[in-house]
Specification:
Distance between the termini: 56 Å
Largest sheet: 9 strands, mixed
Helix content: 25-40%
Structural class: alpha/beta
Radius of gyration: 25 Å
Oligomer: single chain
Strand content: 15-25%
Length: 400
């Protein structure tokens, strides 16, 4: 984490800043009522007519390189409020972010926020089931991805996950669900209205006809977002990690590394095509599913690296890296299904090309990878692994 100066009071509350505070804030107030809280202000952060209040202990408010105009942020015990880089907050009216019950508000980069917008992650009073006596209204975090456009008079309630590249229309009530990348969403309750769109940040108010005509076509891939398992930041994992970091200093280190230093374009990207198709849909893609299985992937690496002595030496490490990548992808898929059951994939047997896909299991790549997994189910010696792979390939070739 980049070193910055910090100011600390007698209660252990810190403000990290790279410039004098009077250069950063204008008509703004920072109030600490609790202990051991952190306000982190990045190099180009600005606070204009903004009030930040820490009402509890060990909370973190992290402001990236954004200018906050008329923003009210209130954090209680163990909350995290993260606002990334180059976000625009319309100065004409207030925005309110209220954090409660150890949950969080995360806003990515390059978002536009219009007038009169507020965030609430708690109800905040308690509701119970009459039969079970169990509480049924837990507080939940809110996540706004990168390059999200939020219209006027929008309310964000607990559990909302607005994915990168999306638009939230004016006077929408956004609550408790996923709003996919590159979609337009609006209404009360907020629903998807259109998909496969992207938006840019130019303002049309003073355009003449020539300027309007010049912008009628925009060929760019910059604002299209696609799910990538290796880049995706799972909201559930973020929540669970922060829950296990009791100190604000620990939260700061995690948020800096995971969010602020993370430049992956698709870190908050999910696409609407993940929705489960209807029962009448004909599924295709069994071949791709099999080629993404661990056995096929490991076998393919074995073949590619068995052509030279140098390849054999690198092989164990490549196999380990591929196994880790596979496990990470499975963890993300499992978390996505828990977040939204429509992310569940059909059984392979339900695909129209299933029988043809089975032929892939006869390929050397698949059989070699499967044999490797079976040979190492009880653990293996990484030093002897290259020799073991060599023998597996030799025996396979001799049997065909």
């Amino acid at each position: 984490m980049k070193r910055q100066e910090f100011t600390q009071d007698e209660k252990g509350n810190r403000i990290y800043h790279s410039k004098a505070l009077d250069e950063i804030q204008t008509n703004s107030n920072i109030v600490f009522k609790g202990h051991n809280n952190i306000l982190y202000l990045s190099e180009n952060a600005k606070l204009n007519n903004t009030n930040i209040t820490f009402s509890g202990d060990n909370a973190l408010i992290f402001i990236g390189n954004s200018i906050l105009n008329k923003v009210e942020i209130t954090a209680c015990n163990n909350n995290v409020c993260y606002i990334g880089n180059k976000n625009y907050f319309n100065p004409g009216s207030p925005k309110s972010l209220s954090l409660s019950e150890r949950k969080h508000i995360i806003i990515g980069d390059n978002c536009l926020f219009s007038h009169n917008i507020w965030f609430r992650i708690a109800d905040p009073h308690l509701i119970y089931d009459n039969q079970t006596y169990q509480r049924i209204n837990p507080s939940k975090s809110i996540i706004i991805g990168d390059h999200v456009w939020v219209g006027q008079d929008v309310a964000f309630l607990k559990g909302a996950f607005v994915c990168s590249g999306s638009i939230i229309g004016a006077r929408s009530l956004v609550s408790g669900k996923i709003y996919y990348s590159n979609t337009i969403n609006a209404g009360n309750p907020c629903k998807e209205r259109k998909r496969n769109i992207f938006w840019t940040g130019e303002c049309v108010h003073n355009w003449d006809l020539k300027t309007t005509l010049a912008h009628n076509l925009k060929k760019t891939e910059d604002f299209k977002f696609s799910f990538n398992a290796m880049e995706f930041l799972d909201p559930q994992i973020i929540d669970e990690t922060l829950e296990n970091l009791p100190l604000a200093t620990q939260k700061l280190e995690y948020i800096y590394k995971t969010l602020y230093a993370n430049k992956s374009k698709n870190r908050f990207a999910l696409n609407s095509f993940f929705n489960m198709p209807t029962q009448t849909t004909i599924f295709y893609g069994a071949k791709e599913r099999i080629t993404q299985q661990l056995a096929y992937r490991l076998g393919k690496i074995c073949i590619e690296n068995s052509k030279s002595f140098k390849g054999y030496i690198k092989l164990p490490f490549k196999l380990l890296n591929e196994t880790r990548s596979y496990r990470r992808e499975k963890e993300i898929q499992k978390a996505l299904v828990k977040l939204n059951p429509t992310f569940s994939l059909p059984k392979l047997e339900e695909y129209a090309d299933y029988n043809e896909a089975l032929k892939l299991k006869e390929h050397l790549s698949y059989k070699l990878g499967l044999a490797l997994i079976e040979a190492n189910n009880g653990g293996g010696d990484i030093i002897r692994l290259p020799l073991k792979i060599y023998r597996l390939i030799r025996d396979f070739k001799n049997s065909h």
